[in-house]
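In response to a reviewer's request, we include the raw inputs and outputs for one of the modeled complexes. The two entities were modeled together in a single run.
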Amino acid sequence: MLEITTIEKSYGKEVQVLKNVSFSLAPSEIIGLIGASGAGKSTIGRILANLEVADKGSILFENQQLIKMSAKKRRQLSKDIQMIFQDPYSALSSRMTVKELIEEALLILKIESSKMARLTLIKEALKLVSLDPDHYLGRYPHELSGGERQRVGVARAIVCNPKLIVADEPTSMLDTSLRLELIALLKSLNEKKGTAFIFITHDIALTQNFCQRLLVLNEGQIVEQGSTEDIILHPKHDFTKKLLSALRKLEAREEVYL
Amino acid sequence: MRSSTKKIGYIGFALLAIIILFALVGPLVIPYDSSEQTGESFEAPSAAHWLGTNDIGQDILAELADGARTSLFIGLVTAILATSIGAFIGITAGYMGGLFETLAMRTIDIVLTLPFLPLMIVVAVYMGQSTWTAIFVITLVMWAGKARQIRAQTLTIKSLGPVQAAKAMGANHPYIFKKHILPGVFPLLIPQFVAAVNAAILLESSLSFLGLGNPLMKSWGSILYYANNRSAFLTDSWAWWIVPPGVCIVAVVLAFSFIGYYLEEKVNPRLSSYTVRKRTMKKERILPRQDDGNILSLEDVTIAYHHKEAVKNVSFTVEKGKVLGIVGESGSGKTTLATAINAQLSGSAAILSGAIYFNGENMASYSEEKIRSMHGREIGYIAQAAMNALNPVVKIKDQLKEAMTEHYKMSPVEINTRIVEVLHQVGLASRWQNAYPHELSGGMKQRVVIAIGIINKPQFVIADEPTTGLDVMVQVEIIELLQQLQQELQMSMIFISHDLPAVLRITDELIIMKYGYIVDRGPSNRIAKYSQHPYTRRLVDAIPTLPKPLLEEVLK
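The model returned the following structure tokens for the whole complex.
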């Protein structure tokens, strides 16, 4: 479904954030983009979400070339590629209710012209993220907890039924106990609707039981890729080993809680 | 909003209403035409002429009423023009960026340096002295400042989450503009507009007073101009000829300033603050307690924000040289607690009951002076570096220096030695002392924040979410660093985090907070394994763990 070949991206003349990145994604597949901060993983997400433009390379999405596509056509493709943001506290406008926030996606992409049909879609999306529509439709973001806000963010991404969702560290601003819940939610969406996910994170532990494949990114390059199990159990590249041993150290008192 | 601000706002609106009424109704009810001679020269106030007459026998009250019309007209028209031009250019420059922005900003810079009065004189020569000349010149000098402020606001909104989200949803420019930029900028325009009216009225009065206004139109400034020219100050006539227009100008400026002040606070809620009346402590509570060897003990502490209790009946102790972990999710009250221990609760929060003892002394008995001298010296505070704990425009070494010289008089050599030493302690090469925060990575910034926390060798340190916002590898480095420093320097420490694994690694004792209460507590090496408390279990179960085989893989 998605075929990225040798894309590059620089900021200014000196900072090259992506070097020669290539990977592909099958329909309904979930891949994890792993790396330290500054590795360029968010940049890949932002390029796919049309928030940045790659300097070079090719991005084929369902046989359409995204690079050099007309701005208008590219915007329309947002229907198929949606994004979930890292910070649920700032991504939702404080002036809008939950209904308006989710409806925004429908209005922008001109999906469903009738109000009633839109409301049905919004309610469906809220149910999918386990928020009771009657209870949440009229609420403002500041009346919601961090976990509920992120669910609204997810509802907004799935309301237009995209084929791919880029989730950029969606759990990092959430409290520990909510992280696994959100992952479980994303996984259920993948099973119910067949949505493909690109899950961007620095926490490999979160990718287990969720991502089918992992790409390890270091300093703008993919240094290793493979099945999630393979990468976690048999890391080959030094950087991957370092990343895993860091996690290991955090869990060094693991015997304490297992 | 504070009630004093509200009052000021209401006074402003009332004053403005009176002035507007005077401008609208005055010329209709005052039986004289201000441009005609309707009395003797220099008549003192009388029943016929309430404010007397001027040198050519014109009624001054009628002049004032006409002047009010002129002032308000010029003020409003100019403000509308200046604010809309400023808004248009500011928003466009901020939103579009690129060449337009560069050109607009350079033009604004030039306009801001234009000398107002000479410009007025030059323009008046070409365009003639008229009301529209005044409006033109005042607008010309005023739009630039507005444009600059509005551009800044636009830039902020453009980079915010909702705009990014809308773009990712495929929104085009007109949509983002209409739905996000305009509603975001609009609240700022209102106080800007009010300030513009105010400035325009004042400028118009100055122009007229200097004789540069429209000579055919009555304005408060021109009344003063003629009074001054006819030497009103040398006769008694100043009392009715100069004071009333002066009072009018002051009144209108005050009215708009008050309204502006009120609106500013209304659109910017951060400026307003709430106050909680602090309950006076009973006297016996403040008595110092016997030293029990603990560096810190809390007894039944309750803290409230805006009358809402954020920390409820919390008691615990920290032994000397030990590390206590406080774990809880956002809203559990852990940061409020840390702020209270650091004696930094702001006006809206207060300790309602209970006591905090530091080295056996009740902190409620401390003077402000004592608390200031304690900060950084006896209690070190390590904040989350990602939360702007460092000043972006000050070099690292100067931030470290500031943390030291607040407490000690030291020679430059001693200061430099200590800076290099402390940077070395936190694992940074001494060359980084000359860097600015933006040149450092997240982990390095956190190291600098730690250096600031320990530079005065405090015996007690509060680390508030020091690993939050960092990636896993850096988290481990920071935790190892804190652990090593704590042991080397024999510090007592409170380590606050919502991340249970991080806390388990470094602490001796652990308390778990929820909704302001301590729900569970115990030694760190036992609590996670043996605690039966459902909330603790939930937190522990939520820790994703890697499958076992990896351990051998990594260790071999």
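As requested, we also summarize the result in words. Chain A is about 40% helix and 25% strand. Residues 253-258 of chain A have pLDDT under 50 and may be disordered.
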